[in-house]
Amino acid sequence: MTPTQLRAFVAVVRLGSVKSAAADLHVSEAAVSLHVAQLRKELGDKLYQPTGAGLAFTPGGLRLASRAAEMLGLQDRTILEVRQAGGGRRLLRVAASTLFAEHAAPGLIGLFADRAKDLDVELSIHRPAQFETLLRTRAADVVIGPRPPADPTLATTHFLNYQIIAVAHPAHPLAKAQPTGSSLREQTWLLGPTGASQAEVVLPMLHRMNVPEERQQIFQSHAAALQEAKRGKGIALVVSFAAAQDIAAGDLTRLTGNLLQAQGTWNITMLGGGTAPSAAAELARFITTPRATQAMLRGGGTTPGRFKPSIYVTLWH
After folding, report:
1. Is pTM beyond 0.90 here?
2. pLDDT tens digits, one per residue of 219-262
3. H, E, C per residue of 95-147
């Protein structure tokens, strides 16, 4: 098996057709078909066959799809590490949920990167449902966010509990009144990207209150949602420590009620069995220390040359 053959097969699996795979790889359909035919011959398996509804994969084809993605990811990782070794630098790729990336990652990454002068940290934001795939394909070295399902091949460490609370402008009608279920359903709810994720805390809170979708507004960042709450536009669900200063200054008030608070956990996960990069294991040990906790809660940052976001989003205004 060659990397070219595996890339062709993975593209067919991902896109659902030889034609789409060829367009994605910028090669002819005949080239993709040839690579797949070579794999079929070497492995003694049809891998897949066309049907009226698309492609039907054999059990062997499904197993190869999983293994091929891992093998290609490991190849890319090896190439990267060899190049880094030649340049005397290391790169740690961190994938995180939007909530952690916005509120806790800057302080953590700043403090951690400053401890090792040969280390650069790349942060990307992903849905928690993608975490396992990112690790197994070596697209990320560690993932940080909600605790993933139990898996003996992954090493997960819980490092911080956080609380989601409801806040509004002090003049909001519910600021001085005990809210009822019906009054909560009638409000405008101002949410960050986490409001669209079933794996995190905010969306289950809204479901418990039976808030209709038309009463929910999702913004590009949690900070943007918080700013709208300060303008009196509705109720925001935020991490408690992120709103602490605004509450202390009187710009926001915390709403009370059992339905208006919930606890979540942040966890760091990497491949187990000693297969994760050394920098990933270093971060997993460091993230549980009191210094790391203080950095996450208080914020902070690092110099532009040490922090390399792999995707660009606006988090603060």
Report:
1. no
2. 888 889 999 999 999 999 999 999 999 999 999 999 988 899 99
3. EECHHHHHHCHHHHHHHHHHHCCCEEEEEEECCHHHHHHHHHCCCCCEEEECC
